[in-house]
Amino acid sequence: MSLTVSNERFRRRFTTFNEIGATNRDGVNRPSLSSANQEARETLVEWFEEANLDVTVDEMGNLFARRAGANDALNPVLIGSHIDSQYNGGRYDGVIGVLGALEVIETLNADGIQTERPIEVVAWSNEEGVRFQPDMLGSGVFAGEFDLEYAYTREDKEGKTFGEELERIGYKGDEPCEPRDLHCYFELHVEQGPQLSESGLSVGVVGGVYGFVWMNAAFTGSADHAGPTPMHLRHDALVATSDVIESVRRITSTGGDDLVGTVGSIDVHPNSINVIPERVDFTLDFRSYDNDIVDHATEQIQREIEHAANRENVEMEYEEIMRVDAEPFDDECIETVERAADAVGTKYMRIVSGAGHDANYLNEICPTSMIFVPSVDGISHTEDEYTEWADVVRGADVLLHAVLEKAKTDGDEQ
Amino acid sequence: MSLTVSNERFRRRFTTFNEIGATNRDGVNRPSLSSANQEARETLVEWFEEANLDVTVDEMGNLFARRAGANDALNPVLIGSHIDSQYNGGRYDGVIGVLGALEVIETLNADGIQTERPIEVVAWSNEEGVRFQPDMLGSGVFAGEFDLEYAYTREDKEGKTFGEELERIGYKGDEPCEPRDLHCYFELHVEQGPQLSESGLSVGVVGGVYGFVWMNAAFTGSADHAGPTPMHLRHDALVATSDVIESVRRITSTGGDDLVGTVGSIDVHPNSINVIPERVDFTLDFRSYDNDIVDHATEQIQREIEHAANRENVEMEYEEIMRVDAEPFDDECIETVERAADAVGTKYMRIVSGAGHDANYLNEICPTSMIFVPSVDGISHTEDEYTEWADVVRGADVLLHAVLEKAKTDGDEQ
């Protein structure tokens, strides 16, 4: 029987942790840099210290907890995820990756296992991107994708900046937030999609992450009275938007097997029952594992926006606000996770992640892979998010064995 | 040369009146029962009294100003409109009908003309319906359409009631607000549509008002992550709504010559760029001069809502929240307005009003018609609303001559 984490200790920590910012409907409300997020950080740091880890906080508030290796000059194996949540989000998203990583350390401690390489646990700041955009901001700065100053000046809806709020909760650290040498990165996370839940498997070995593009678009027409304005004299920004929403369905039906597209947000002005909508601001999100398919969808939707504007005779605007290329993870890290799953004795499937993760940015600076556990019915980003506890433990066991393989190996790079 | 109103006096009053609650962009902000509405009422009452009119305020805050007739027991000719505005609305909407009616009285006074019948000027409360719904509340209670208690308990967004606010501004009068015998009602108003502006005519003789139906509808699907959720597993409330918006265009293109349909308001939850919309609440507005056409459109859209819910596999809700039948005005009153336009020497066209007016409710209790003057480019309910002053004066002259014909006539009913 292979080494396993402690179901009971892990469960107790998970339950205690999710009392922080708990909602009435079994979710948690701990958005980035909120007071609940502060309390969650304090609890986590306390547990890191109880596990004899060396805790550092970087300029972005990313929390690192280091366990020395026998050969401590070797590059560390980094494991972790995030502890910020959506507004009224689920208890598993991010949390199991951080507490699972701590559980790996506790298991090594309890069994007196000394690894060659140091191991670091990380909790990244602002993964969700619901309070401060863009998402994955902490890992993005760490990987050199964003400037620190850019991150500090991100504002929430009340105009508070990321930098101010990070200082307010006491987690603006001194450690530089910049790329450094890492042996590899593993992240345990819930799938946030239906594939594992449908297949009945406990573990997904993540081969890579979908690329995506985000756009902001807007139409501006005329706010006339809904009664006396004949149809042929209207310039209805909502009708034009509706044309675009329909096109998203048409484009995804023919654009590629795995292409998905969403209009998630829409704001109408003046938004009154008897006034023709003058202006609509809306968002677009296209994703695929094939960058060319995303590119093609982006071109097509721009043409559809132009067509809709011409048809309805309204002004149009659009801009791409974010683009992340599809990223295959490191072959060797993927195979390490597969061997770990075999060691644990769990069946698994290769899977591609539709959602973005901190692992995307880590993948740019070190060999990376991820371990997924099922989201029941694929439900994500709501309080109804649920994963069977046995699956969470299975995932942590796979993480443990992946770490054992990578951290025990003699490194030839330093 | 026929009798005319005083361009100069009318203009001076119009300018002075619109300094109350003036906005930076040439509009006015005098929503129902606001302090600016109070000030406008006080100015109007002062002017009524300067014109030797007998002012009464009814339980709904409707203001009446009476000029005695030679045979004062005859039923009065009622003329007027409203002085409440949209939030940041136009200066002409409602105002010209009330000040135009006062100008008719001043002209009769100045020329020493004694009419057989009494004449009353009215300013109806809460026509716009932007602060307290429904609109046309003052004339609606007067015509027996709504209970007084229902009106008093209408709440604004801050939870203040119509009754409390009416009392606060000092315009809760003692006069019963209920139907009484009237000889006829005329209302001068801006068209709020493009027909006169397009035709180049100064005056529209209003033959009646469109019927309309208002509906609230909603779809409820699932708020899944926009990345990992394949298209075929989505239940997107916004896609279903978009189907309905497209159907409104299809229905209006075939449903009847004058049928118009609008989705004016839409609220999306959670309204986030990377979350599939879980719930959308939206409104529908259909209008035509033919009640059967409105009925048919209502049936069709309900079927489309059902189809859309089935296609997207989301829950649906809909309810009709208001229905007003199309109302032809009184033939004799319409002809009176046409003769008045001939007397003034202005060309005119027959027109049907797409917007609701206080005249709709008055039409239920006495012979009624309206006089429209052009809205340049049909623009309405915004600060950009504009009418050439010469057209406003032309409209008031037509009102004057309609009043002369009706108020001079010996009445056979009392």
Would you give an account of this structure?
- The model of chain A is unreliable at 410-414 (pLDDT under 50).
- In chain A, helix 8 (237-254) packs antiparallel against helix 9.
- Chain A is built from twelve helices and 14 strands.
- Chain A is of the alpha/beta class and 414 residues long.
- Chain A is elongated, with a radius of gyration of 23 Å.
- Chain A has helices at 7-17, 35-50, 95-110, 137-142, 148-152, 162-168, 195-199, 237-254, 291-312, 331-344, 358-362, 389-408; strands spanning 54-57, 63-67, 77-82, 119-124, 184-190, 203-209, 211-220, 260-262, 266-269, 279-288, 315-324, 327-328, 348-353, 368-373.
- Chain A has two domains: 7-208 and 327-408, Aminopeptidase (3-Layer(aba) Sandwich), CATH 3.40.630.10; 211-324, Alpha-Beta Plaits (2-Layer Sandwich), CATH 3.30.70.
- The interface between A and B is large, with 64 and 63 residues.
Low-confidence stretches of chain A: 410-414
Distance between the termini of chain A: 33 Å
What would you give as the CATH superfamily of the largest domain in chain A? Zn peptidases
Question: Biggest interface: chains and residue counts?
Answer: A-B, 64 and 63 residues
Structural class of chain A: alpha/beta
| Topology-level CATH name of the largest domain in chain A | Aminopeptidase
Overall 3D form of chain A: elongated
Along the chain, the helix and strand elements of chain A come as HHEEEHEHHHEHEEHEEEHEEHEHEH
Total domain modules of chain A: 2
Mean pLDDT of chain A: 95
Strand count, sense and barrel status of the largest sheet of chain A are:
9 strands, mixed
- Helix share bin of chain A: 25-40%
Rounded radius of gyration of chain A (Å): 23 Å
Strand content of chain A: 15-25%
Q: How many beta strands in the DSSP annotation of chain A?
A: 14
The helix tally of chain A amounts to: 12
Oligomerization status of the protein chains? homodimer
Q: Which CATH architecture of the largest domain in chain A?
A: 3-Layer(aba) Sandwich
CATH class bucket of the largest domain in chain A: Alpha Beta
